[in-house]
Amino acid sequence: MRTFQIDSEPKRLYFSNSNRIEEEILFQNILTKLESCKEIEIGRKQIGPSEDLYKCKWSDWSFCLVYDIDYGTYIQVDDEKVIQRLKKFFEDGRLDMDDK
User: Fold this and answer.
1) CA dihedral for 33, 39, 45, 49, sign (positive or negative)
2) What angle do CA 81, 51, 53 make, to 5 degrees?
3) For labelling alongside 17, which of 26, 43, 66, 87 has CA 20 to 30 A away?
4) 69: CB partners within 8 A, 6+ apart
5) What structural domains and CATH numbers belong to the chain?
6) Do 83 and 15 form a contact (C-beta atoms < 8 A)?
7) Which phi-psi region, left, alpha or beta, contains residue 72 (left: φ > 0; alpha: ψ -120 to 50)?
8) How far apart are CA 84 and CA 68, in angstroms?
9) Using one digit for the tens of pLDDT, what is the confidence trace for 75-90?
10) Rounded to the nearest 5 degrees, what angle is found at the Cα of 51, between the Cα atoms of 49 and 55?
11) Helix (H) or strand (E) holding 31
């Protein structure tokens, strides 16, 4: 699963949709991948007027998986340090706790 970031949004991790699947399916694929990792805690689904989100926790880091009907699927982090770890997890399938 390919990811990318926008320079002006360093606390967001976006997902490439090069196969042009429905955005909701992309969101479900990402959620399923997160659920497959026992080190990541996933909270209950929260429904807003234009987005659905899941608050997640990995070790000491918090982040939200967001499905926004206007902007698509992305992860919003509190601490930018977790971005590189999440990128590695989605692109390589690894979730290394020891990476600096």
Assistant:
1) negative
2) 45
3) 43
4) 50, 51
5) 3-92 (3.30.160)
6) no
7) left
8) 22
9) 999 999 899 999 999 9
10) 120
11) helix 23-35
